[in-house]
Specification:
The chain is built from two helices and seven strands, in the order ββββαββαβ. By secondary structure, the protein is α+β, with helices and mostly antiparallel strands. The protein has a four-stranded antiparallel β-sheet with strand order 1-4-3-2.
């Protein structure tokens, strides 16, 4: 993201599950749910982007992957985020961090499903800017 120096500090696979009993290969109707959350730490000037995907059939999840990426932000820019006792993180920057996390999650999903019938489930391209539509407002 232009103007904001940051680095990826940590990747966690917070949740991964294959629920084989909930999957029926004869049913083609599959839904994909996405959940995006963010957290901040003023102490470490960091933002955590958390992405969770659930592949579902008949409202039952059969494949779940949740990944969080922790990003460290330069201290001088962090100070600029502070406004009236809140942290205001620009929408475009949050969307950028979420996009990195989606790509990371795609790799985790591929790796964890290698040599299984679930390896054919690939996360599609996603326009994160349609999901992360406003600045993030966080308590300090």
């Amino acid at each position: 993201m232009e103007g904001i120096q940051f680095s990826l500090k940590k990747i966690n696979t917070d949740q991964f599950a294959i629920i084989e009993d909930a999957y029926n290969s004869q049913i083609e109707d599959i839904n994909l749910e996405i959940h995006i959350n963010f957290g901040t730490s003023s102490e470490t000037t960091s933002i955590v982007s958390i992405i969770k995907f659930q592949f579902k059939q008949n409202e039952k999840s059969f494949l779940i992957v949740e990944v969080s990426c922790e990003f460290s932000v330069e201290k001088s820019k962090w100070s600029e985020f502070r406004k009236e006792g809140k942290l205001i993180i620009p929408q475009g920057f949050l969307a950028h961090l979420a996009m990195i996390t989606v790509g990371t999650t795609r790799g985790v999903l591929h790796s964890k499903t290698t040599n299984t019938k679930f390896n054919d489930f690939i996360l599609p391209t996603i326009d994160i800017t349609k999901i992360v539509t406003e600045d993030g407002k966080f308590d300090e």
